[in-house]
Amino acid sequence: MRALLLILLGLVIGAMGATFALSALRQGVPFHKAVMAVMAHHAGELHAQMRAGTCEAKGIAARLARLRGDAGDVREAFGDGIDAGFGPAADQLTTALDRAIAAAPASCAALSTVMRPVDDACQSCHRRYR
Ligand code: HEC
Q1: Rg of the chain over CA atoms, in angstroms?
Q2: Which atom of ligand 1 is nearest to the CA of 87?
Q3: Which of 20, 42, 55, 121 could form a cystine bridge with 108, CB 3.0-4.6 A?
Q4: Could you report the per-residue pLDDT of 81-113, keeping only the tens digit for each?
Q5: Greatest C-alpha distance within the chain
Q6: Separation of 130 CA from ligand 1 center, angstroms?
Q7: In sequence order, which ranges of 28-107 are alpha helices (DSSP H)?
Q8: pLDDT tens across 24-67, in order?
Q9: Mind telling me which SUPFAM superfamilies this protein's record contains (predicted)?
Q10: Which one, of 76, 75, 72, lies nearest residue 98 by Cα?
């Protein structure tokens, strides 16, 4: 009888462990990491165009717009942020991207100029919060 109870207990604990493992797997990539990864992709593509010298206005505008959309999700992705400085750090990025879009860069040189404050916004937030 005691052995049977122990076997049953083992089965129940095993099933619970499997359920926890499955739900952990199902949670997938956290939203804030996804937002950062997508921004890194678009910023990386813009830098690659500059290195290759293949900058053209339409492609740049489309990518900057996507980057701006993702940057708008940063506050939401981190909830209320980490402290009171986090929101303004996120705003620094959206402001830099708004300016970049307004400048409508049509050459690699122009793109490089507008990307500097964008990259600074990424880096200054990372230095403080990452
Ligand atoms: C307002 C703050 C803030 C701004 C602005 C910001 N980041 Fe981040 N980023 C973070 C924080 C905080 C982390 C660490 C997240 C973690 O590890 O959970 C991070 C992590 C990352 C990561 C690693 C993600 C991972 O899977 O661990 C990448 C890549 C990244 N950021 C790219 C960027 C790029 C590119 C920009 C600018 C276009 C940017 N970030 C702007 C706060 C910011």
Answers
A1: 23
A2: 1
A3: 55
A4: 789 999 999 999 999 999 999 999 999 999 999
A5: 81
A6: 7
A7: 31-52, 57-71, 74-77, 86-103
A8: 656 789 999 999 999 999 999 999 999 999 999 999 999 999 99
A9: Cytochromes
A10: 72
Instruction: Report which ligand 1 atom has the smallest distance to the Cα of 37.
Output: 29
**Structural domain includes residue 69:** yes
Number of folded domains that form the chain: 1
Say what the pTM is: 0.85
d(CA 25, ligand 1 centre) in Å = 23
| Ligand 1 center–CA 18 separation, angstroms | 32
**Which residues constitute the domain of residue 68?**
30-129
Q: State which amino acid sits at residue 3.
A: A
Per-residue pLDDT of 4-30, as tens digits, reads 777 777 777 667 666 666 666 567 899
CATH of the domain at 64: 1.20.120
Mean pLDDT of the chain: 91
